[in-house]
Amino acid sequence: MKKIALGIFALCSFAVTAWAQVKIGYEISFKEPQAHYAEVEMNLSGLTKDYVDVKMPVWAPGSYLVREFSKNVEDFKAVSGSKTLKLEKTKKNTWRIYNGNEKSVKINYRVYGNEVSVRTPFIDDSHAFLSSTGIFMYPDQLLSSPSTVKIIPFKGWTKVSTGLPAVPGQEFTYIAKDFDILFDSPIEVGNQEVFEFMASGVKHEMAMYGGGNYDIKRLQKDLPKVIDKITAVYGENPNKNYTFIVHNFSSGGGGLEHLNSTVLGASRDQYKDEEGYLGFLSLVAHEYHHLWNVKRLRPVALGPFDYENENYTTDLWIAEGFTAYYENKFMLRAGFWKLENFIGVLTNNVSSVMNTPGAKVQSAAEASFDSWIKQYRPNENSNNTSVSYYSKGEVVGLLMDLEIAHATKGKSSLDDVMKAMYLQCKATGKGYTDSEFKAMVEKISGISFTDFWAKYVNGTHPVEYAKYFGYAGIKLEDQNAGKPIPYLGISSKRSALGVAVASVSRGSAAWVDGLNVNDDVISVDGVAPQGPVERMPEIVNKKVGDVVKIKISRDGIEKMISVTLKTTPNVSLVPLMDKNVNDEQLAVLKKWLGV
C-alpha cells in the first residue's frame, strides 16, 4: 500500500509539474465595439496532454448569482500554427480542444457585452468595460497559474485603467499571478478622465467614464478623509496602489469590490447636489471597506473560489451587512455626517427591517445562504418570505456593536472585533467560520453571545431597539404605537389600465380579503385612483374596521372586493436623546461613535 501511495503521489506531482509549465497569455481587441463585441485571443504553450479544457466562469465574486457568462461567447475556434484543431463543447461553460501532440494552442472567441452594470462586460463605441469573469476563460486545473493580458484599444482610445500590475516596457500589457487575481481585476478601456491622490500612504487612481459635474479637487480632498478613517480601524492598508473605475450615466448606482480596485456606478449630475455627493462618498466608503471585510477578512467559503458553481456561506450578513453598517460610521467619522444624520439613518434601517414581513420568516444566516436564489431574483412575494442580508446584517452589526461597548463599559467595540478577525485571517491565510467569528466577539466583549446569535443571526427575533439604543442613552419612540392607523397592505404600480397592485403584505387586510398582485384597480369606494392606492383619502381617512369596496380587473374580468381595514403592523421610529444619560451610557456612546 505504501508503494502504491508513493506511486500515486509521484504521478500527481508529475501532473502538477507538467501543468505548471503551461504559459497563458491573452490579447483583447475591438473590431466592432459599436456592436458590443470584444475579441479575445488566448494563447497556451507548454501543453503536455493531447487535449485541454477551457472554461468560462459562471459568476462574479461579490455578486452571488449564477449569471452564465458563457451565453455571451460565440465564434469559438482553436488552431496550432496553421492547423485547425478539433473542438467539443462538453458543458455549458467548457470547451475541449484536441491538440494531439501540439504543444501550443491559439484560441479565439468573441464576447458580446451589452449589459450596463458593475459586474458584467459592456462594450460600445465610446469605451469597453471588461468585467474579467465575463471575458477570460481559464484552462482546467490551472487556476493557480500566472497569465499576461495585452489590451489593444480601439482606434481613438488612449487609456487603460486596472488594478493589474503592468509589464515593464510593454504598453497596455499586464500580469496576473493567478486567476483569482485576474478575475478580481476589472479593466476599463477608452478615454476616461484619470486623476490621482494619496491616502493612508497608498497611491489611488480614479478613472471617470461618462463625464459629469464632479469637482476633481473636491474629490481629491474628501476621498482621503473617508479612506483614512477606514484604514484606521485596521491599522494598516494592504495595498500599494488602488484603482477606482467610475461609470457615470444619466442614472447609475451600485458598486462591486475587488482586491485592489472597485467599480462604481454613479449619476453624472449627482456631484453638485449635496445629497448626491454624499451618496457617492458613502458608496466609496462601502466598497473601499471591502478591501478588508470580504476580500481579506472573509468567510471561509469565499476563496479560493469555485468559478463553476455556487459558493455557499451563511455569513454574508457580516461580509455585506456589516459593510453597509460601517459606511454610516465612516461618513460620521470623516465629518460628512452629523450625529443626527447618523442616528437617523440607523433608526430608519431598524424600522425597515422590522416592517419587512420576511424578516419574521428568514434569518440573517438563511438570507446569506439563499442569496444565490433569492437576493438577486426577487419576485412580488419576496418581501413576505425573505429579508436582505444587507439590511438585516446592518441591524445585527448595530446591535452587536452596542452590546460589545455596553459589556466592556465603553472600552471595546465592533471595531476591535473586525481588526482582530482581519489579523487572524491574515495570519492563517484562511477565511473564518461562523463559530470563529462568534468566538472572537465573545473574547473581546467578555460575555456570551449564544443568545444573541440565536435571536438575531439564526433566528427571527424582533429587534429589541429600546434595549440596545438605551445602552448609548438614546430613546426610540414608535409614533405608531397605540394608534389605530388603518392599513390596506399593498404597494402600487403603473399599469396599462392606470394603477395596479404591485405587492401584498402577508397578514394584511388586502392579503386576508383577496387582493392579488397585478390586479388593476378601477376604483376605491367609487373613486378612480390617480396615484398609489394605499395613499388615497378613501383609505387613509378611514378607520380600522371600516370596509372599503375595491373594484378591480383581474385577467380582463371585473370584480368587486370588500376589504376590512386592519391596524398597521408597522413601526415608525423617531430617535430622542435621553436627557438623563449617565456616565456609563456616555462611555458607550463615545466608543460606539468612535469620534
The major β-sheet equals:
7 strands, mixed
**β-sheet strand percentage:** 25-35%
Mean model confidence by pLDDT: 96
Overall morphology = globular
End-to-end distance, in Å?
64 Å
Task: Tell me the radius of gyration.
Answer: 27 Å
| Total helical elements | 16
| Residues in helix, % | 25-40%
List how many beta strands DSSP finds.
29
Enumerate the spans where pLDDT stays under 50 for 5 or more consecutive residues. Answer: 1-18
Strands of the biggest beta sheet: in what spatial order? 5-4-8-2-1-12-14
The helix/strand class is alpha+beta
Description of the structure:
Helix content is 31%, strand content 27%. By secondary structure, the protein is α+β, with helices and mostly antiparallel strands. Strands 5-4-8-2-1-12-14 form a 7-stranded mixed sheet. The radius of gyration is 27 Å and the shape is globular. The protein starts with a helix and ends with a helix. Residues 1-18 have low confidence and may be disordered.
